[in-house]
């Protein structure tokens, strides 16, 4: 194995470990902490606001020269079943899975 390939794999492994540590350590620390009630209430609504921001961002397309954003109907058709599942199941994972499957099906048919 060449030195360049070896350096690449070392950097890849180290960056993977750093990424995992950044994403996992906060979840481990939260288990041992007690948050104030106002922060717990705020964090309760955070997933909903994040999903809303992602939905709105993907429904509308901003085109240069247009005053109003255009509706992306392909994304809208994938989002609608995901919203229904989210309302019925109250599961973020179910929403993500349904959205991915619907988007994949639309792209396959398109």
Automatic annotation (TrEMBL):
Q: What Pfam families does the database record attribute to this sequence?
A: AzlD (PF05437)
Q: Does the keyword Membrane apply?
A: yes
Q: Which organism is it from?
A: Leuconostoc holzapfelii
Q: What is the lineage of its organism?
A: Bacteria, Bacillati, Bacillota, Bacilli, Lactobacillales
Protein name per its UniProtKB record: AzlD domain-containing protein
Keyword annotations for this protein, in alphabetical order, are: Membrane, Transmembrane, Transmembrane helix
| InterPro entries (UniProt xref) | Brnchd-chn_aa_trnsp_AzlD (IPR008407)
For the keyword rRNA-binding, the answer is no
The residues that cross the membrane are 7-30, 42-60, 67-85, 91-109
